[in-house]
């Protein structure tokens, strides 16, 4: 069979205050067209359909419309899971009815072990889950790390493998060795141990969601689809698209999506930026991240630049104070939680934490780590 | 055919901070049992399924479970509309799939004119709507009053009447001549003109939602089902239940629901209330509204009474200052918006509004009334 693998739609997502609904609609239309041109037998959506647990009415209406078109109008079987941005309970609404038309919206950890068979393939749909759910399900409190949990999970799935079928895992997590972009929340990605990729080679294909760049992981049979739309300036250079996967013979093919409005990083002086030779080449509706190379102070710079670039999403100065602040932030990304707390405390109070305060924080982190709700790498 | 008429489930509703989820589950189980005993062919839910536009995850999960049981497990056709408490858009999620199993969740004004036929009956499902939706639909800006709008609406529905069928309207509004209880927001009920009942006699039966007491309206073929659970102390004496409606020959039958935990109004002195002869007769889980008859000050009265009545939902003094305040409130219910504003302004600022301020308010009300978003009776 042949299926399309997409993920991380994040319906309702905003880019620095700009609504991306037009871009998301356009990407959806392209995905629908690709599904038709490629004659796929099913569509996989690997989590994070919404950007927020409580999506706006507009977002709810848009996603409902999209899923209806794919499943009820175009009659594609749909295989979807909830991601960490979705409310599993809200996304579950209607799921018992969806099954009647081969729309499998899977939001329960425990249902991941009942594969959905479509043509020659068994799909195991594993939604985003908290380690505690796995501990409850397996009745094993020693499961604190994602590698242990996934080893047990895959082991149980293997017992359900029909020998004459192909086996595809659909999941939403951070796979070991992946790189990531700014639009995935750093703390989320770093908060759970990564899943070692070698566990996943039991499957003929693993359709992942969570990271927004298809190149975050380079594995022949374990792939992130990435988001269909660029969600941050760090994704300015990444190509968006979908995977078309053939199960027999196995083959994957990348089909790119053309951005309706692109994100552009402009590293120039104020003089260059206000030169028609440059600004006339940039469509008004594109999103622009400006890195100003000037060293001198420029008054009212944001408002003056908006005149040429109406959709500025960020403005930084390569040679100014902001650059130092940004570097400072880069350092913080790699701090351990204790050091991060100390740095935050000092920044907020202009004092170092007392010994007693440090002790409370240290013990809290230790307790969280034992409980497994927070698992530092 | 025979159908069950219920309404105003308000899943997620709290009674003075007390969660009513147990009461709602219990009422649901009783409704399901009645449907089975009475061998009904369909179940009508006339709006306000949720208490809030954005329901909690627990509420979403509970309603999903209830609807699934009725439609997918027990195989009843379901005819439901959105009420003023529901978010029509959120409640619409899944509705295109629901139809496949005769679950009609109708949230769009314009779809009210496509009846659903079950056995010998055409059901017209008219969700709660804003007058502007009707003006847009009919392309007629002169429609500002509910009586005009409903006259046009019923006229168009009549054109769809199949002569060999019975005709049932399911709707959610305030019918003229109805009395109401405190759990329906006064401003909502008063904010729209009432719908004259004689317009509705075109239908063999009108299954209404909105008001929480079945006796709010006394008409042979136009009925409120009321809420299945008591939602305010003003409903302490009302009987909750469902209507069982036979279309041929026409017959309605009231089947009461037994409250899991009742609401009781106790009008006594402190001494009487703390007498075992009284408090031992009141189950701990019942909700108690106390009207204290003492005139003397009693210290820490609420905490002391909670010892005997753990679920006190209100405490007032028949002979104290509180009574005067309550009477004051009763007067306000019947004020027109302008007088209500003046009273509010005076209460907040201890001054009467100036002429200029009065003018602004008067003009604003007038403008709202022209626009039809606010229609004073």
From TrEMBL, chains A, B:
Query: What InterPro entries does its record include?
Result: Calcineurin-like_PHP, DNA_Repair-Maintenance_Comp, Metallo-depent_PP-like, Mre11_N, SbcD, SbcD_C
Q: Which GO terms describe its molecular function?
A: 3'-5' exonuclease activity; endonuclease activity
Q: Which UniProt keywords apply?
A: DNA recombination, DNA replication, Endonuclease, Exonuclease, Hydrolase, Nuclease
Residues annotated as domain Calcineurin-like phosphoesterase: 1-213
State the similarity comment: Belongs to the SbcD family.
> What is the role of this chain?
SbcCD cleaves DNA hairpin structures. These structures can inhibit DNA replication and are intermediates in certain DNA recombination reactions. The complex acts as a 3'->5' double strand exonuclease that can open hairpins. It also has a 5' single-strand endonuclease activity.
Any idea what this protein is called? Nuclease SbcCD subunit D
Organism this protein belongs to: Ligilactobacillus salitolerans
């Amino acid at each position: 069979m042949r299926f399309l693998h997409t993920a991380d739609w994040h319906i309702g997502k905003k880019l620095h205050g700009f609504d991306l609904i037009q871009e998301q609609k356009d990407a959806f239309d392209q995905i629908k067209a690709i599904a038709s041109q490629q004659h796929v037998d099913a569509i996989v959506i690997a989590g994070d359909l919404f950007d927020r647990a409580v999506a706006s009415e507009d977002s709810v209406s848009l996603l409902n419309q999209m899923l209806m078109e794919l499943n009820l109008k175009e009659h594609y079987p749909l295989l979807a899971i909830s991601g960490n941005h979705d409310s599993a309970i809200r996304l579950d609404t209607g799921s018992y009815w969806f099954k009647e038309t081969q729309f499998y919206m899977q939001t329960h950890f425990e249902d991941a072990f009942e594969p959905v068979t479509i043509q020659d393939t068994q799909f195991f749909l594993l939604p985003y889950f908290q380690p505690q759910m796995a501990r409850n399900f397996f009745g094993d409190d020693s499961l604190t790390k994602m590698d242990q949990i996934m080893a047990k999970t895959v082991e149980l799935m293997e017992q359900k493998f029909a020998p004459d079928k192909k086996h595809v895992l659909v999941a939403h997590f951070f796979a070991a060795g992946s790189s990531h972009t700014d639009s995935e929340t750093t703390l989320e990605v770093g908060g759970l141990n990564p899943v070692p990729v070698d566990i996943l080679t039991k499957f003929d294909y693993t359709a992942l969601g969570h990271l927004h760049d298809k190149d975050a992981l380079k594995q022949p049979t374990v792939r992130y689809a990435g988001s269909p739309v660029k969600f941050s300036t760090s994704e300015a250079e990444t190509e968006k698209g979908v995977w078309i996967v053939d199960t027999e013979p196995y083959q994957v093919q990348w089909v790119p999506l053309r951005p309706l409005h692109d994100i552009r990083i402009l590293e120039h002086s104020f003089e260059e930026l206000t030169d028609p030779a440059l600004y006339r080449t940039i469509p008004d509706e594109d999103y622009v991240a400006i890195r100003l190379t000037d060293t001198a102070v420029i008054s009212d710079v944001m408002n003056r630049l908006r005149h040429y670039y109406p959709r500025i999403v960020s403005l930084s100065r390569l040679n100014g104070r902001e650059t130092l602040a940004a570097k400072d932030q880069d350092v913080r990304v790699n701090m351990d939680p204790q050091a991060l707390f100390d740095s935050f405390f000092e920044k907020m109070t202009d004092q170092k934490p007392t010994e007693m305060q440090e002790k409370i924080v240290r013990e809290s982190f230790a307790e969280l780590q034992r409980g497994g709700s927070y698992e530092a790498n």
